[in-house]
Amino acid sequence: MYAVIKTGGKQYRVEVGNKLKVETLPAEVGSDIQLDQILMVADGEAVSAGAPLLDQARVSATVISHGRHDKIRIFKMRRRKHYRKQQGHRQNYTEIQITGISA
């Protein structure tokens, strides 16, 4: 059984036991959360898709940790124009583990 969820503007295909790094969620480490934006649930041959969301479906997860991704370096340059610009970015994330899917 798997589900397709939407969180942080992105879509993820999840199964029970998966660990994901998603955009920061306002939850404490160790707490249980309910993800309610479910786009699709598949259980063997039975597939139910929402238009756009499923109303009764829920995915439960446990917050494992909060952290920051590796640094991304942004470098812009225009040749022969004396223009160089460097910038860095580290995105925050919340690591969750999927504990249950209910359709």
Number of helices: 0
Question: Percent of residues in beta strands?
Answer: over 45%
Radius of gyration: 18 Å
Number of strands: 10
* Largest sheet descriptor: 4 strands, antiparallel
Mean pLDDT: 95
Q: Give me the strand/helix succession.
A: EEEEEEEEEE
Specify the helix fraction band: under 10%
Shape: elongated
| Classification by helices and strands | mainly beta
Q: End-to-end span in angstroms?
A: 10 Å
Strand order across the biggest sheet? 2-1-5-6
Low-confidence spans: pLDDT under 50, at least 5 residues? none
For this entry, give a set of tags.
0% helix; mainly beta; 4-stranded antiparallel β-sheet; 103 residues; single chain; 10 strands; elongated
Set down the secondary structure blueprint.
Layout: E1 2-7, E2 10-15, E3 19-22, E4 32-35, E5 38-43, E6 46-49, E7 58-68, E8 72-78, E9 83-89, E10 92-102
Antiparallel strand pairs: 1-2, 1-5, 3-10, 4-7, 5-6, 7-10, 8-9
